[in-house]
Design goal:
The chain is α/β, with parallel strands linked by helices. The chain has a domain of 68 residues. The protein has three helices and three strands, in the order βαβααβ. Strand 1, helix 1 and strand 2 form a beta-alpha-beta unit. It is globular. It starts with 22 loop residues before the first strand and ends with a strand. The relative contact order is 0.16.
């Protein structure tokens, strides 16, 4: 089970944490790493998601970054946008901000 910084289980309801301010969670987030369980939990508990690495990244020399994938390139070309704009738009349309 994921744990918050002070060893509070992540499943603890927000009302029990006495949170009187907005909360955010910054997680690695891109089409290949959508972390649906974390996103769903965050939405249910009014925690805003800030995704980093929305453009994806290469894990090895033989892998291409998400921003360089042919499907992303085709979508970008179809709409007259850059691949980065396509991926950032995917994040914003999904309800989170990105870095």
């Amino acid at each position: 089970m994921p744990i918050l910084r002070d060893s509070t289980p992540l499943s603890t309801p927000m009302k029990d944490l006495n949170a009187s301010h907005s909360m955010t969670s910054q997680i690695s987030l891109h089409p290949h790493q959508q972390q649906r369980d974390v996103v769903e939990f965050s939405k249910k508990n009014n925690i805003h998601i800030v995704g980093y690495s929305l453009l994806g990244r290469k894990k090895s020399d033989t892998e291409i970054a998400t921003v360089d994938e042919p499907v992303v390139q085709r979508i970008a070309k179809k709409y007259g946008k850059t691949p980065a704009q396509v991926l950032l738009s995917w994040g914003v349309q999904s309800g989170w901000s990105g870095t």
